[in-house]
UniProtKB/TrEMBL annotation, chains A, B:
Organism: Heracleum sosnowskyi
InterPro entries: CASP_dom
Summary of subunit composition and partner proteins: Homodimer and heterodimers.
Protein name, as recorded: CASP-like protein
Membrane topology annotation: Multi-pass membrane protein
Coiled-coil annotated residue ranges, if any: none
Source species, domain of life: Eukaryota
A GO CC term assigned to this protein in UniProt: plasma membrane
Species classification: Eukaryota, Viridiplantae, Streptophyta, Embryophyta, Tracheophyta
Residues covered by the Casparian strip membrane protein domain: 18-161
Alphabetic keyword roster: Cell membrane, Membrane, Transmembrane, Transmembrane helix
Length: 177, 177
């Protein structure tokens, strides 16, 4: 046991459980983000107009571009944190052993979870109402926005996993006052 | 001085400054939410159609109803926290003096800031793309969605103030491990 024991510290077995929970949350986040990314970026539809067939891709919806940006940033962060979590679980130590990484977790989780929250909101917001606005007009659009909703729903899970990571990293902060 | 001194504790004057910062953040949050609420709920427009004039209100956009819900919940929480913060600044103590209120702040700030983040995302997402979809067709709609963007922008500030409160309440948590 390399950590300093104190009266409030959980026994080592509990600490190991918490580290594993942390790793599972990181892995679930990355999986959700990858699935959401695939659903979002493969989403295209073709609608008929007086000027012929028009292909609609996810890039044509500005909010979906924002959603994509949040997913990509979330993924980069998620891979990094998964690597850190694997190191933490397998060795029982943090990479530099000091307090700096706790603050990186704390601010990183906060920032990324907020980013994913806004992405989720934007994805649902635009999908629900653009689907409504086009309901009954073009059948391909209905499916297009349903897929947008699906990508947002998976992103919602990624956001929730990151929010839980954020709660854990806040509770793990070294005492300030 | 009622608090136990320790080597890491800031001197009382710093603590007073932090309490005041906390109160200012709560007040700024409430003001932003009220302004956003007014812009959102007074937003109506009238568009001409083959069937006569059609009045469009914010309730017709589902995402705006969600934004309204996040603002109202944020306001209830904001008023409560402003009252607590006034008590804290004027008396120098928390209401029940124990740890419970720190955890209420911590989880409350986290939950409400995430809620406001999703509301901000939904508001911008739907406004930007529905404005795009209707650009050049009906002039009244352009102004309608501009107002939706304005309400979302003010809500973004409320979210940021709450996110800062959330950072402060996380850092104020009693030590766990």
């Amino acid at each position: 046991m390399t950590e300093t024991p104190s009266s409030t510290m959980p026994p080592p077995s509990t600490a190991v459980v918490w580290r594993s929970v942390g790793l599972v949350l990181r892995v679930l986040t990355v999986i959700s983000l990858v699935v959401s990314l695939i659903i979002l970026t493969t989403n295209t539809t073709t609608v008929s107009s007086n000027f012929g067939q028009i292909k609609i891709r996810f890039q044509d919806i500005k909010a979906y571009r924002y959603v994509l940006a949040t997913i990509v940033i979330g993924l980069v962060y998620g891979f990094l944190q998964t690597a850190f979590a694997i190191y933490h679980v397998t060795t029982g130590n943090r990479i530099n052993g000091g307090d700096a990484l706790y603050f990186f977790d704390f601010y990183g989780d906060k920032l990324i979870s907020y980013l994913l929250a806004t992405g989720t909101g934007a994805g649902f917001g635009v999908s629900v109402d653009l689907k409504d606005a086009n309901s009954g007009t073009v059948s391909g659009l209905d499916k297009f926005f349903n897929k947008g909703n699906a990508a947002s729903a998976i992103l919602l899970f990624a956001f929730i996993f990151t929010a839980i990571s954020s709660i854990l990293s806040s509770l793990s902060l070294p005492k300030r006052a």
